[in-house]
Design goal:
Helix content of chain B: under 10%
Number of strands of chain B: 7
Distance between the termini of chain A: 76 Å
Number of helices of chain B: 1
Structural class of chain B: mainly beta
Number of strands of chain A: 3
Mean pLDDT of chain B: 94
Helix content of chain A: 25-40%
Low-confidence stretches of chain B: none
Strand content of chain A: 5-15%
Strand order of the largest sheet of chain A: 2-1-3
Largest sheet of chain B: 7 strands, antiparallel
Oligomer: heterodimer
Mean pLDDT of chain A: 81
Largest sheet of chain A: 3 strands, antiparallel
Largest interface: A-B, 24 and 23 residues
Strand order of the largest sheet of chain B: 2-1-5-6-7-4-3
Number of helices of chain A: 2
Shape of chain B: globular
Order of helices and strands of chain A: EEHEH
């Protein structure tokens, strides 16, 4: 279970949160040391790595002008049926 | 009610006393039995090795993400284990899902190594190893 400390406990400051075994946690709540945040909570949120999105890189590639001429011919020529 | 079927490993974690070892990404418990050789010239095994059970032993290990003193967590963290390793403190460790009806493995263990890893643009992480001293006791959470 996840608890938030209301009082200092084992050198940890009030307001700190953590995961405890339920039996022990229930006793801490009874003793007024902590308050319940989530009864079924087992795993804490782990610090997540920030994902960096890279911008696309455009690399200029030399193309022979003849290539475009051929392209034009292909477009303007009627297709043989 | 006990967990049905195969247990999700995320839910099974190590607790020092009753406090979770924080930011863990994996936990392992190893139990092994040493063998003592009993082959003698009188054995009828035709030269084959013969053994009987010897010492039982256990180890624990965990991998976790690292958070320093600035972390607002009550969980048991690297700094706590660091102090335990230096002092050689025997810790009461429980390995459980904390679900009623599931197993609780309870043992006393000493932290024997800590490896702190800091890669560029990676989370700082660490691994901790423990040697179990005494018996590992299996009970069911009531």
């Amino acid at each position: 279970m996840k608890l938030r400390l209301l009082k200092e406990w084992n050198g940890k400051q009030p307001g700190n949160t953590g995961v405890f075994l339920s039996e022990y946690g229930e006793q801490m709540i009874k003793d007024g040391i902590a308050e319940l945040l989530d009864n079924d909570f087992v795993v804490e949120d782990m610090p997540k790595k920030e994902e960096v999105k890279q911008d696309p890189i455009y690399i200029p590639v030399f193309v022979n002008p003849e290539h475009f001429q051929n392209e034009e011919e292909n477009i303007t020529k009627p297709k043989n049926k | 009610m006990a967990t049905t079927g195969i247990i999700n490993g995320t839910l099974m974690r190590l607790y020092k006393d009753s406090t979770a070892i924080g930011y863990a990404t994996s936990c392992q418990m190893n139990i092994s039995s040493a063998m003592r050789e009993i082959l003698t010239k009188d054995s009828a095994a035709g030269g084959w090795r013969e053994v009987k059970k010897g010492q039982l032993s256990g180890t624990l290990s965990t991998e976790a993400l690292y958070a320093g003193p600035g972390d607002a967590s009550t969980n048991y963290l690297f700094d706590d284990l660091f102090a335990d390793l230096i002092a050689g403190t025997a810790l009461t460790i429980k390995f459980t899902t904390d679900v009623v009806g599931d197993n609780i493995f309870t043992m006393s263990a000493i932290c024997t190594s800590l490896d702190l890893n800091a890669g560029v643009e990676e989370n700082v992480s660490y691994s901790a190893s423990f040697e179990v001293t005494g018996a590992i006791v299996k009970t069911t959470k009531a």
